[in-house]
Specification:
Elements lengths: L2 E4 L2 E3 L4 E3 L1 E5 L2 E6 L8 E4 L4 E4 L1 E6 L4 E2 L2 E2 L4 H10 L2 E8 L7 H12 L6 E7 L5 H14 L3 E5 L10 H14 L2 E5 L3 H13 L6 H5 L3 H17 L4 E3 L5 H12 L4 E5 L1 H5 L25 H12 L4 E2 L32 H10 L6 H15 L17 E11 L18 E11 L2 E5 L2 E2 L28
Parallel strand pairs: 1-6, 2-7, 8-11, 11-12, 12-13, 13-14, 14-15, 15-16, 16-17
Antiparallel strand pairs: 1-4, 2-3, 4-5, 7-18, 9-10, 18-19, 19-20, 20-21
Length: 471
């Protein structure tokens, strides 16, 4: 059945205007003033913004980590994402323990099939780049439509890749038309700092931050940038947290290097002091990289506004406080790394960005939807409101005030990282490919209705790589 969205204000990365949107099947068929209904279901968006569905480039659903598994799977995680205004996610397919890359990808398809309530794609995580992986990689990327690779410079005992592996990944990505995503922290130095802290009897959650200093992130970011440049390849720095890393990205982009960066909502509104909460409550805020001193929040917002950082990923990686976070009660290094963010990414950026004057409406859409769609080969199918694009729409009330709480969120986790935070703005209805996933703040979708997205190869032709702004 056709749908007609009327009386709303359409906001894209480029424009803000009043118009109606006619949806036929899964696509936007027409945009214009006073479009006739002609039997279409009419959706009244009076007083609301109409945003393109959010594209979250960084999630970890049903992922094994730290001797446990994340508590949100592909059903609960994607439903929560939809409540938050996100209609597409890109999740990380781990390849450790699988005999082949193809086997790893099939395992991830098995996790999502029958559960995903919104559309999705995969990044491919690489722990090594031996000859076997190098030989298989191009075929898997081509067959699966995967156009992004993930490499860790952190987690010395689990995932950390050496510089040779990282350089080979950049070279392979250049040839295959893929974007390399890097977790930039000096894992070897962090491992030594953790060992020293524990030897000194320091077991509390705050030592998670104190053993992962911002200098370790800045150094690794610089190293990743130079290796990517040496390989004449492209780099996407995930979850940037601090001024030390932002400076490296800004300098590289000013030179025309092919470097892009992402931050996350938790780094925009929370700070290192949360890890000092008493009664082990600080464990709720253990993720990597860690929260930083509060001054970094302004640096990150300035970087988003200036285009030094381009996207906001959730880094959704939820572990219950009762039970799983408690695994590190006597040793901070055993606290499962990660937190619940997928549902609040969209609204926090609107409230803290647009409402507080840190971003304008078009910048908000660019960061939360358009830029990730462009960087990861989904634009213009995703990330915009245009004729021919998928009808992924968020009808958003910009005035409502609400308080974030675990009592009302939809994630399968027993706490909220943003508990008690008052924000302005809320998704009212969310459509994915023309179908309601959320209707009047109620789940109206169906687990398993999400579609796997084969993505276009990386092409930086339309992506700006220079910036003149200082940090």
């Amino acid at each position: 059945m056709k749908k007609l969205v009327k009386n709303g204000i359409i906001v894209t990365a480029a424009d803000t205007y009043e118009a109606d949107i006619l949806i036929e099947g899964e696509k936007i068929a027409e945009i214009g003033l006073n479009l006739p209904a002609n039997g279409a279901e009419v959706i009244d968006a009076k007083g609301a913004y109409i945003f393109p569905g959010g594209v979250d480039p960084h999630t970890h659903l049903d992922m094994p980590f730290n001797n446990t598994v994340t508590d949100d799977d592909w059903e609960t995680g994607t439903i929560a994402a939809a409540f938050g205004g996100t209609t597409t996610i890109l999740d990380f397919c781990l390849t450790t323990g699988d005999r082949t890359l193809k086997e790893a990808v099939q395992r991830w398809h098995g996790k999502a099939n029958g559960k995903a309530a919104i559309d999705y794609g995969f990044h491919l995580m690489l722990a090594n780049m031996d000859d076997k992986v190098m030989a298989e990689l191009p075929l898997v990327l081509e067959e699966e439509g995967i156009t992004s690779l993930k490499v860790f410079m952190a987690y010395a005992k689990e995932f950390q890749a050496d510089d040779r592996t990282l350089f080979r990944a950049f070279k392979a990505a250049k040839e295959a038309g893929a974007l390399v995503m890097v977790h930039c922290e000096n894992g070897s130095v962090i491992d030594e700092l953790v060992t020293r802290a524990l030897a000194g009897g320091h077991t509390e959650p705050i030592y998670h931050a104190l053993t992962r200093p911002p200098e370790a992130e800045g150094e690794a970011t610089h190293r990743a940038i130079e290796l990517a440049h040496m390989a004449d390849s492209q780099l996407y720095v995930v979850h940037v947290t601090c001024a030390e890393a932002v400076r490296q990205i800004a300098e590289a982009r000013s030179k025309g290097y092919k470097v892009w960066g992402e931050t996350c909502p938790q780094y925009l509104v929370l700070d290192q002091s949360y890890l000092e909460k008493p009664n082990f409550e600080g464990a709720k805020y253990v993720w990597s990289p860690p929260l930083r001193e509060k001054a970094n929040q302004k640096v990150l917002f300035n970087a988003l506004k200036a285009g030094i950082l381009q996207t906001l990923g959730s880094d959704q990686c939820s572990f219950n406080f009762n039970g799983k976070k408690q695994l590190g009660r006597n040793d901070f290094s055993k606290i499962p790394n990660g937190g619940p963010f997928i549902e609040d990414r969209f609204s926090i950026l609107y409230s803290e960005g647009v409402q507080k004057g840190n971003l304008n409406l078009n910048q908000f859409v660019d960061i939360v939807s358009t830029q990730p769609a462009k960087l990861f080969g989904l634009f213009p199918q995703k990330g915009t409101i245009a004729v021919g694009a998928d009808a992924d729409l968020v009808i958003f009330d910009p005035e409502v005030k609400r308080v974030i709480s675990a009592k009302t969120h939809h994630m399968n986790v027993d706490y909220s990282a943003f508990e008690g935070m008052e924000i302005t703005g809320e998704p009212i209805s969310v459509l994915c490919r023309g179908n309601f996933v959320i209707k009047e703040k109620q789940f109206a979708g169906e687990p398993g209705s999400g579609k796997y997205l084969k993505r276009k190869k990386f092409n930086d032709g339309s992506l700006q790589t220079q910036t003149t702004a200082a940090v």
